Amino acid sequence: MFRPIFHLAFPVQDLEEAKKFYVTTFGARVGRVRDKWIDIFLFEGQITLHERPSEVLSAREHGVRHFGAILAWRDWEALALSLNKMRVQFKVKPNVYGVGTNAEQAKMLLSDPSGNVIEVKAYRNPSVALEMEDLEECSASTA
Fold it and tell me: pTM of the full predicted structure?
């Protein structure tokens, strides 16, 4: 049975450098490869990296823009350990916030070589931390 796959596309400075980063840093898999773009499968999603240096934003222009994934706690811990061993440069080093509360979460931020920010999180209690609106409330508010 087919499950939907989240897809995101963004520009990078250098396609080969970006591919190497995602494969080496996260163990991502390479999909389709073309002259000016490549598909990367990362955290059960697909990102398409487009070699368009003129569209890459400076760090200042990024603002709050980022993408990422929420992992199982043990997977987050294993990734944090692996990235630390690789001596990855973090924007926010792996850390745990709200220790002992229902909202306890682990978080790290890093950038790819083009400055695209990646946030990787885990929640100790996902059902509390990922509260979602009731579907009936959403339907009523859009009617």
Answer: 0.86
